[in-house]
Amino acid sequence: MTTFEVTEGVYGIDIGMFDSSVASVYLFDDDEPTLVDGGIAAAAETIVEGIEDCGVDPSSLSNLVLSHVHVDHTGAASALVDVAPDLDVYIHESTAPHLVDPAGLVESSKRAMGEHFELMGEQGPVPEQNVVGVPNEGTTVDIGANSLELIHAPGHSPDHFAVWNPERELLFAAECLGIYFGAAEEWLPPATLPNFDVDAIGDAIDRLAEFDPDRIVFPHFGEWPGEPDDAFETARTELHRFDERILEYHDETGSVDATKELVGEELLDLSPPYDPAVESFFSSLLTDGYLKHHGRV
Question: What is the mean pLDDT of residues 24-29?
Fold first, then answer.
């Protein structure tokens, strides 16, 4: 388990999904300690240990803000409620029922993730009384000296929120912009099944750029090392570059599996330094997401 400081009072916890530096959740240490994103079910113990490592009693956790319902962002929510029974769990109102009864979410995730799903762990139900459904208009969670504004920014999924911390001018971009794997210096667009939408992602990029953040952090992974404006420009460029190349690969091969292989070999270039499972996982999600968007799968 690895933790890292983003800025005073904000800490990242590496949840060890497939490898290090692939997925993280973020602890905001304030009067009401708040975790942004819930990671995978298999990482619940790692997350609790990370909260302790940051100097916070896990049982004092007040809020859990979930960017969207995908299992790599909500999986440990039920375990965290077990540790902190009064925890308020924020998620878009449209997908809140999937926290209470995750059976449908689990089945959908198995179809989207294939063989990789086994590594996610067993996601349990969150008690309905702990779940706070958030409308499209968003909400503000006051946590003490700081606040967290939930900004509806669909595209990766219809229920997707980014989180804006105005006091620090810090943006938790979730998967609204993309994925940055610093060890490989590679940027990936946030394509996935079943509801990825290229145009909506473009709108989300433009909307979040208007906040003019000083810092940007990602669940996949860590803090953006460059100028924030460069992150938005990279997001726009790579969103459309991957779109064009994946369609070209599919046109050339006529095969989804062959397209996934080309995406891994020619677009991602993640392994090494990352575990081969990382490249396999994301090449599959990217390919399926773009092809589904264009009605090819």
Answer: 98
For 166-249, where are the E strands, in sequence order? 170-172, 179-181, 186-188, 215-218, 222-223
Q: How far apart are CA 288 and CA 30, in angstroms?
A: 40
pLDDT at 251: 98
Give the length of the chain. 297
Q: Containing H/E element for 72?
A: helix 71-74
Residue carrying the six token digits 């809140």 = 96
CA atoms within 13 A on the CB side of 30: 22
Task: Please classify residue 139 by burial: count the beta carbons closer than 10 Å to its beta carbon, then call 0-12 exposed, 13-18 middle and 19+ buried.
Answer: middle
42 neighbors 30 (Cβ within 8 angstroms): no
The answer to pTM > 0.90 is: yes
Query: What token pair was written down for 68?
Result: 């969207």
Cβ-based neighbour number of residue 167 at 10 Å:
11
